[in-house]
Design a protein that fits this description.
Chain B: It holds the Pfam family TPP_enzyme_C. Chain B: Keywords: Oxidoreductase. Chain B: GO terms for molecular function: oxidoreductase activity. The complex is a heterotrimer of chains A (86), B (302) and C (384). Chain A is elongated, with a radius of gyration of 16 Å. Chain A is built from two helices and four strands, in the order E-H-E-E-H-E. In chain A, a hairpin with a 5-residue loop joins strand 2 and strand 3. Helix content of chain A is 12%, strand content 19%. Chain A has a single domain, classed as Alpha-Beta Plaits (2-Layer Sandwich). The termini of chain A are far apart. In chain A, strands 1-4 form a two-stranded antiparallel ribbon. Chain A has a two-stranded antiparallel ribbon with strand order 2-3. Chain A has 86 residues and is of the alpha+beta class. Chain B is globular. Chain B has one domain: 3-Layer(aba) Sandwich (Rossmann fold). In chain B, helix 4 runs parallel beside helix 6. Chain B has 302 residues and is of the alpha/beta class. By secondary structure, chain C is α/β, with parallel strands linked by helices. Chain C has two domains: 243 residues, Rossmann fold; 132 residues, 3-Layer(aba) Sandwich (Rossmann fold). Chain C contains 13 helices and 16 strands. Chain C has a seven-stranded mixed sheet with strand order 3-2-4-5-7-6-13, with helices on both faces. In chain C, strands 10-12-11-14-15-16 form a six-stranded mixed sheet, sandwiched between helices. A two-stranded antiparallel sheet of chain C has the order 1-8. The chains are: A alpha+beta (86), B alpha/beta (302), C alpha/beta (384). Chains A and B meet through helix 1 and helix 2 of A and helix 1, helix 2 and helix 10 of B. Strand 2 of chain B pairs parallel with strand 9 of chain C, so a sheet runs across the interface.
Chain lengths: 86, 302, 384
């Protein structure tokens, strides 16, 4: 694809970089204990924790780097970080 | 949770920040506060590098990076141009502590002295992180960095943290605030206030760096909370130069914070450096005194 | 209609008519009269522009960059130490393809500190991707600003430009200048129409970083644009001639070259002196001429080689020096004339404001015809 003048780019192409491949630890969300506070979605540095139809939350594993911040802040401790089997 | 979704869209996933990156979270929260009607002027540094390797930009708002030290000057020009064109976008600078406190002093001082209607957000991870963890004017006393390493005859960084909020308040900035990603809603509210206050406003947001400070990536917000609880970071606002809305804490000893980070490990291993830890405690105590952060316990007779 | 005015004032009057929306400049001798005149015009509401009194030249060009990227035509002016301070931003502006036009009131670089004229400052940035034009007199200085904006803003070009005129010699001298009306300038230079801009309705990321996978191609694109700028200048210069009667369709201007055996090559105000010297030497039967270089970047190698085809001796006068090498113009002219068979010599002359007289020009011609060159001309040997 031809270069854009001045090293300029429109939004969107960062999404081509699937950072989920970086992961060592994988989060597992337990919706039964979730109080729907939304903290996990607010504090994810990737912005890849999304609300489900039920109002609970789930990670987008294409981008989740497994950092564990969501698990640490969750007031109900209903997010578990486990070593991922590749 | 539509706001949260919008935050995602304006700063997308796929960026190359370390897992658990404090500044990456700060970027998302910043855009949650500004919404899409904003133009960002960014400095060279971690946030710029991890978010814009051509052509993979993570930014969903207009964004410009020129050099390391000049976002405040670039923003001055953008603001002037928008004024002439009658446009409404907010102009927000974002730079790390290196770009802001050190190499960018010239441009930020000039922009604030001239009173441009801009907001400058400094994400403070307390060193030049993108180039490999070298000390900056924001590196706290006693921290080991690659250019202020702890060694046989050095306790690490021997300089005090530059008081940038005070410097910019002295320029006549109508609103100056410190914040932390450990209190994300507070940071978002402060950004909202800053962009809606006419004139040059400044927010320095504490963004712990797991890679540079040496702690597990999941502890980023916990570390930010401990910084505040020990008094080594104070969250406050300055309105027309007067301090207000200081976050009060039930103070913990600084050792609880220092012992959890590799950059302070030399204070504990191979031997405890109680003299150095005491100096750092004194800094926290001085902050507590200056800003009044200690929650006073009520005496039974009151 | 001709008006008698100071060079700086002529530049300010033309810049006003070019309708910049944002002006960001830092005062420095000998450019000060330009920025002071513009400040007064803004204060009198004669220009519809924001005037940012920046805290340094580094900030001046950074502010211009921001304003340009946001969609405004911008202007700045500097010289010498100020331009040197802008070094980093200059490369940045060209790489970001912002069409900024900046006046350079040429002045020597310290150390030692000197406020007087030579062309070291702009010449030292010849690698930066900025177009470079050199004015012989104040009329050219004024005209070149209009042409520069038009060339720079062409969507096929999108490069910044230095319009250079010799400090004090032109900036502070009074000459008759014909200033166009606002309507005439508007007809020649339409409103700024940015190729792309910072805009919340159509967000873009400007100034991303390029890995080794992309960097070379971006630099190649800038180089290609610079080469296209030569043609764009010729086209814009011809249109200027059709509208105003002064033709600028050539990046070089020959003076009495037709049967010249020895040709002097130079840039800037020294060309005025050289033309008078050439006339005198011609009266004494010497077959001499002048090739004035008006556009130094992109370097008009082909036009120079074509113009100098008949010359057997070429004497390049350099008001600059690449220390440890030689004069920049001389070095590049020699490269352009490789294989031509002409004897090409380089003379470092008139640095730091030292005066040049017609007899100095004649002396250089003598030296060149005797085969003596590649030297400093006019050193005060008594102080060495």
């Amino acid at each position: 694809m031809a270069l854009r003048v001045g090293c300029v780019a429109p939004p969107g192409r960062a999404l081509e970089n699937k950072t989920g491949a970086w992961r060592v630890f994988k989060p597992t969300f337990e919706p039964e204990k979730c109080t729907k506070c939304g903290m996990c979605a607010m504090v994810c540095p990737e912005g890849c924790v999304h609300e489900t139809e039920e109002g609970t939350f789930e990670p987008d594993l294409d981008y989740c780097k497994g950092c564990g911040i969501c698990a640490e802040v969750c007031p109900k401790k209903c997010i578990r970080m486990e070593k991922e089997e590749k | 949770m539509a706001e949260v979704e919008q935050g995602c869209a304006l700063f997308s996933a796929g960026h190359r920040a370390c897992g658990g990156c404090g500044p990456a979270l700060a970027a998302r929260l910043l855009l949650k506060a500004t919404g899409k009607n904003v133009i960002i002027a960014a400095a060279t540094g971690c946030m710029e590098v991890f978010s814009t390797p051509y052509p993979e930009t993570a930014w969903g708002v207009p964004w410009i990076h020129s050099l390391f030290e000049n976002p405040a000057a670039v923003a001055s020009g953008i603001e002037a141009s928008l004024k002439r064109q009658g446009r409404s976008e907010k102009v927000v600078c974002i730079g790390g502590d290196g770009a802001t406190l050190d190499i960018g002093m010239l441009c930020i001082s000039g922009a604030f002295e001239r009173g441009h209607d801009i907001t400058y957000v400094c994400y403070d991870n307390e060193a030049y992180m993108n180039t490999g963890i070298q000390r900056s004017g924001a590196t706290p006393y006693g921290a080991s960095t690659t250019t202020s390493p702890a060694g046989k005859c050095s306790p690490g960084n021997v300089h005090q943290k530059k008081d940038m909020p005070a410097i910019l308040a002295a320029h006549g900035a109508p609103y100056v605030a410190t914040a932390s990603i450990a209190y994300p809603n507070d940071f978002v509210q402060k950004v909202e206030r800053a962009i809606n206050t006419p004139g040059p406003c400044y927010i320095q947001v504490h963004t712990p760096c797991c890679t540079g400070w040496g702690f597990e990536s999941g502890e980023t917000l916990a570390m930010g909370k401990l910084a505040i609880e020990t008094g080594l970071w104070v969250n406050y606002e300055m309105v027309d130069g007067a301090v207000e809305k200081v976050k009060k804490v039930k103070r913990k000893p600084v050792e609880e914070y220092l012992s959890k980070q590799k950059r302070f490990r030399h204070l504990f291993k191979p031997a405890r450096r109680d003299d150095e830890i005491a100096k750092i405690q004194a800094i926290a105590d001085a902050n507590a005194e200056r800003f009044g952060i200690d929650i006073k316990r009520k005496e039974p007779s009151e | 209609m001709l008006e008698f005015m100071e060079g700086s004032h002529a530049v300010a009057e033309i810049v006003k008519r070019c309708r910049p929306q944002v002006i960001a400049a830092y005062p420095i001798t000998p450019q000060t009269h330009i920025v002071e005149d513009l400040a007064q015009m803004v204060a009198n509401c004669e220009i519809d522009a924001e005037y940012i009194t920046v805290e340094s030249e580094f900030s001046a060009l950074s502010a211009c960059l921001g304003a340009s990227a946001a969609g405004s035509r911008v202007y700045s002016a500097t010289t010498s130490q100020g331009l040197a301070l802008m070094f980093e931003v200059c490369f940045n502006v060209a790489g970001m393809r912002q069409p900024i036009v900046m006046t350079i009131a040429n002045r020597s670089l310290g150390a030692p500190l000197s406020i007087w004229n030579d062309q070291q400052d702009s010449i030292s940035l010849r690698d930066s991707g900025w177009l470079q034009f050199y004015a012989e007199d104040n009329q050219e200085a004024a005209d070149l600003h209009m042409i520069a904006y038009r060339v720079c803003e062409d969507h096929d070009i999108l490069l910044p430009a230095f319009v250079c005129f010799d400090g004090f010699i032109l900036s502070h001298t009074y000459e008759p200048v014909s200033l166009p009306t606002q309507e005439e300038v508007d007809a020649y230079l339409p409103a700024f129409n940015p190729y792309q801009r910072l805009d919340a309705e159509a967000p873009l990321s400007f100034g991303m970083y390029a890995t080794p996978e992309y960097y070379m191609e971006f630099r190649y694109e800038v180089d290609r644009a610079m080469h296209r700028a030569g043609e764009a200048f010729a086209k814009a210069g011809r249109a200027f001639g059709e509208q105003f009667g002064r033709d600028y369709s050539d990046p070089v201007e020959g003076y009495r070259l037709e049967d010249a055996e020895t040709v002097l090559v130079a840039m800037g105000s020294i060309c005025g002196t050289i033309k008078d010297a050439v006339d005198e030497m011609r009266e004494h039967g010497r077959k001499v001429g002048l090739l004035k270089i008006r556009m130094f970047r992109p370097f008009p190698a082909r036009e120079i080689a074509d113009a100098l085809e008949g010359a057997s001796t070429v004497a390049v006068l350099d008001r600059n020096i690449s220390l440890g090498c030689g004069g920049a113009v001389g070095t590049e002219v020699k490269a352009a004339l490789q294989g031509s068979g002409a004897a090409v010599y380089d003379y470092i002359i008139a640095l730091g404001g030292r005066d040049v007289r017609k007899r100095d020009i004649a002396a250089v011609v003598d030296l060149a015809e005797k085969g003596k060159g590649d030297m400093f001309y006019g050193l005060r040997t008594e102080v060495l």
